[in-house]
């Protein structure tokens, strides 16, 4: 598929996806979701890729769903557009490899929902976060009502959703919405460094972390313990990554994954 909105670069086991629709502040339209679905499938099929990073070009990460496209929709089309985005962001969550959002600027509405579909978020000091849907007489439609409260807790979620306040990176850090904040000129360098750090770890262990933590969140603590024990055991087979990692430690050498 030829991409019009996404740019995909793969280097040293890291796929960097840049959303580039600067004339509309990278707003998410139907085309974006088709490209992103394709991109998720194609990156997932490349065994050499260990981490994916998503960022935006220009002064926005993503300023929301495309209002100019949405305004013409009827209720059925609105629901379908919501399901399209929910499915794409759910596919992001289900990717076996970690996905990091590098938030360079505005992450509003559907843009914040995209960032929340990633595994964690790094932000520039210039980033701005918000769920401004109520300004438009709308609510989030890409699972923002569900992910935000799980990430930041009920109070901060309802505050952001009901006021449409735009908050800066320091507030986002305090809420736990982002994990690190960097000066704009080093955001991508630091993000790629972090991606490289993760890409150098045991790849099966990293995939198991993602899977067990994410699956565990939707079940009971005890079910999560069982998931963890089974995943832990899976790393011990003959010729497994765990055996190699532990042997390398004891032999005082780098593991050969
Ligand atoms: N959709 C379409 N176009 C947009 C969007 C958007 N979300 N955001 C910005 N643009 C366009 C502007 O219309 C403008 O276009 P033009 O130059 O042709 O007039 C261009 O981008 C530049 O924008 P501004 O001139 O407004 O730039 P500023 O720097 O003054 O302001 C802001 C930047 C603060 C980001 C401002 O553009 C803004 O407030 N944008 C809208 C933010 C918003 O409300 N986002 C939420 C959208 S709703 C949503 O995301 C719901 C998700 C769930 C959908 C479920 C489907 C049913």
Write structural notes for this entry.
The structure is a single chain. With 257 residues, this protein is an alpha/beta fold. It has two domains: 6-199, 2-enoyl-CoA Hydratase, Chain A, domain 1, CATH 3.90.226; 203-250. The protein has eleven helices and ten strands. It has helices at 30-44, 67-70, 75-94, 110-117, 144-152, 154-163, 169-175, 187-199, 203-217, 221-234, 241-250, and strands spanning 6-11, 14-19, 51-56, 60-62, 99-103, 106-108, 120-124, 128-130, 167-168, 180-182. It starts with 5 loop residues before the first strand and ends in a 7-residue tail after the last helix. The model has no long low-confidence stretch (mean pLDDT 97). It binds octanoyl-coenzyme A (CO8).
How is the secondary structure organized here?
Elements: E1 6-11, E2 14-19, H1 30-44, E3 51-56, E4 60-62, H2 67-70, H3 75-94, E5 99-103, E6 106-108, H4 110-117, E7 120-124, E8 128-130, H5 144-152, H6 154-163, E9 167-168, H7 169-175, E10 180-182, H8 187-199, H9 203-217, H10 221-234, H11 241-250
Parallel strand pairs: 2-3, 3-5, 4-6, 5-7, 6-8, 7-10
Antiparallel strand pairs: 1-2, 8-9
The structure holds octanoyl-coenzyme A (CO8).
The mean pLDDT is 97
Annotation field: number of helices: 11
Main beta-sheet annotation:
6 strands, mixed
DSSP, total strands: 10
Q: In angstroms, what separates the terminal alpha carbons?
A: 32 Å
CATH architecture of the largest domain: Alpha-Beta Complex
The residue fraction in helices comes out at: 40-55%
Q: Can you identify the CATH class of the largest domain?
A: Alpha Beta
Ligand catalogue: octanoyl-coenzyme A
Instruction: Look up the CATH topology of the largest domain.
Output: 2-enoyl-CoA Hydratase, Chain A, domain 1
Residue windows where pLDDT falls under 50 for at least 5 positions:
none
The total domain count is 2
Strand percentage: 15-25%
